[in-house]
From TrEMBL:
Protein name stated in the entry: Alpha/beta hydrolase family protein
Presence of keyword Membrane: yes
Molecular function as annotated in GO: hydrolase activity
Signal peptide segment: none
Keywords noted in UniProt: Hydrolase, Membrane, Transmembrane, Transmembrane helix
Pfam families tied to this protein: Hydrolase_4
Highest taxon in the source lineage: Bacteria
Residue ranges constituting the Serine aminopeptidase S33 domain according to the UniProt record: 54-170
């Protein structure tokens, strides 16, 4: 191993160790208990022996309990009993989402009922003498607002509601009575929705101002410098949520917001950086594939990107219990197969498949990186229902990533080829969503996941490809991509 690889290994190991230490410190001193509300998995966070108010925490679309930990940990350390859960179809929840996603009486009604079931569990486990609050992000904001209204009608009023990145048509001038709406600075339309909720109480309400009419209190606040995901880690947003709840329950002694976001980035960055020195331990390929001429490259990238949406949307028949996963598998297998033919990979030569290198990349990208994600950031460990989805997705992701590895030079190609290949994929998927928006609109939501995958796993794959060849990098990345997609998107049943 070269000096440079040794130096990178030392720095990365220190970064990983420091990050894990800080992230575990954020959890230290808390009782963290796994619970079940029917089929719904939940986690209770609380200080030992402290009887604080109950706060039920709900995540957004394609999220999980882990994504909400900055709020859960901070509020638990402040003396609240925090119950976070996975909505149906999300995280570890084995029950798929179902119903009409466009109707309030469809999927939304099911999620409201599920939230109320979790509330019932929390009240039974914690008691409700200290009061009850709801906190949710994005999709969950409409759900928790409607759950609060339903609880009030049933004679079990919720004392406070905190919405993050809110959109809900259920908010009225009188309900929920005590509502905080937090938005990220770069969430323009959601900021407007939050301010509109405050102006139902006072027409000239401004952001950052608490307004009141009788028993109704509203506040719309902005977390600076963040967007739809960053707002979940913003110290300003977390502090505002805690202060709002403290005021609602007459509590004092606010704690500093738990800052997990920077340490999650440092941990995942350290794990990626460790890949570089570890790749140096793999056997080095002696033969490189022939360079692909520019004309053939453009043909292999652009023609499939244009043709596949036209073909795939015509023959697509849903068969997997995950939103658009089956279409994505079909799209990728057609795209990858056509690219392999146009690239004429059988003429490029290069090293044979290094199964050990491919397995090492898959184990590192799924096992080490994935387990770190699962503990601190987002659900990455699948339940049994998702394993079938992952296996099916691999039929598309593996040939696509092998073709991509050849097209982009397997870690040795020019940067513009990587950008062109990724952009062609994104445009191809966007075209499919435009052709059949009723069934495939959720493809647009996949694009940020794919971008993050290419930035993180793609970098690890480039190092493997440069040393061991495109087949090893493509196979390993294909398995990683199938896993990442299989655990990210909600299980869904049309029934």
């Amino acid at each position: 191993m070269t000096r440079r690889r040794i130096l990178v290994a030392l720095v990365a190991a220190i970064l990983v160790a420091a990050s894990v230490t800080m992230l575990e410190r954020a959890r230290a001193g808390l009782e963290i208990t796994a619970l079940q509300a029917g089929e719904t998995p939940a986690t209770l966070y609380r200080l030992p022996g402290v009887e604080g108010p109950l706060v039920v925490v709900a995540h957004g679309f394609a999220g999980s309990r882990q994504l909400m930990q900055a709020y859960s940990l901070t509020l638990a350390k402040a003396g609240y009993a925090v119950l976070a859960f996975d909505f149906e179809g999300h995280g570890r929840n084995p029950e798929p989402m179902s119903g009409d996603v466009t109707s309030v009486d469809g999927t939304t009604a099911r999620l409201v009922a599920e939230t109320r079931e979790v509330l019932t569990l929390g009240r039974a486990r914690v008691g409700e003498t200290g009061g009850v609050a709801l906190l949710g992000h994005s999709m969950a904001t409409d759900v928790i607002v409607r759950a609060a209204l339903a609880e009030a009608e049933a004679g079990h009023p919720v004392d406070a509601v905190v919405t993050i990145s809110m959109f809900s048509q259920a908010v009225t001038a009188s309900a929920p009575q005590r509502l905080l709406a937090i938005s990220g600075e770069w969430e323009g339309r959601l900021r407007d929705a939050a301010l509109a909720a405050a102006r139902l109480v006072q027409l000239d309400a401004a952001e950052g101002e608490t307004v009141q009419a009788g028993d109704v209190l509203r506040r719309a606040v902005v977390a600076p410098g963040v967007e739809h995901v960053g707002v979940l880690y913003s110290a300003t947003a977390v502090r505002e949520a805690q202060l709002w709840l403290d005021a609602a329950f007459g509590r004092e002694g606010a704690v500093a917001p738990v800052r997990v976001g920077p340490w999650i980035l440092a941990l995942l960055g350290g794990i990626v950086a460790l890949t570089y020195p570890l790749v140096g331990l793999l056997p080095k390929a002696r033969v490189r594939p022939a360079e692909i001429p520019a004309r053939r490259f453009w043909a292999a990238v652009l023609l499939p990107a244009a043709l596949v949406p036209l073909v795939a949307t015509t023959i697509y028949i849903p068969f997997l219990p995950v939103l658009v996963a089956d279409y994505l598998m079909l799209h990728l297998v057609l795209l990858g197969g056509l690219q392999l033919v146009l690239l004429r990979v059988w003429r490029l030569g290069g090293p044979p498949l290094s199964a050990g290198a491919a397995l090492a990349l898959a184990l590192w990208g799924i096992g080490v990186f994935g387990l770190a994600m699962d503990r601190y950031a987002a659900s990455f460990v699948p339940n049994a229902e998702r394993l079938v989805v992952i296996a099916a997705l691999a039929f598309g992701t593996v040939p696509f990533m092998i073709a991509d590895s050849y097209a982009t030079g397997a870690g040795r190609g020019r940067w513009w080829r990587r950008i062109a290949a990724r952009l062609a994929l994104f445009l191809s998927l966007a075209a499919a969503a435009a052709i059949d928006p009723e069934r495939l609109l959720f493809l647009v939501i996949i694009l940020p996941v794919l971008l993050l995958f290419f930035v993180v796993h793609g970098l690890m794959g480039r190092w493997v490809g440069a040393r061991c060849g495109p087949l090893a990098a493509g196979l390993g990345l294909g398995l990683c991509l199938a896993w990442a997609l299989g655990v990210s998107f909600p299980l869904f049943s049309a029934g």
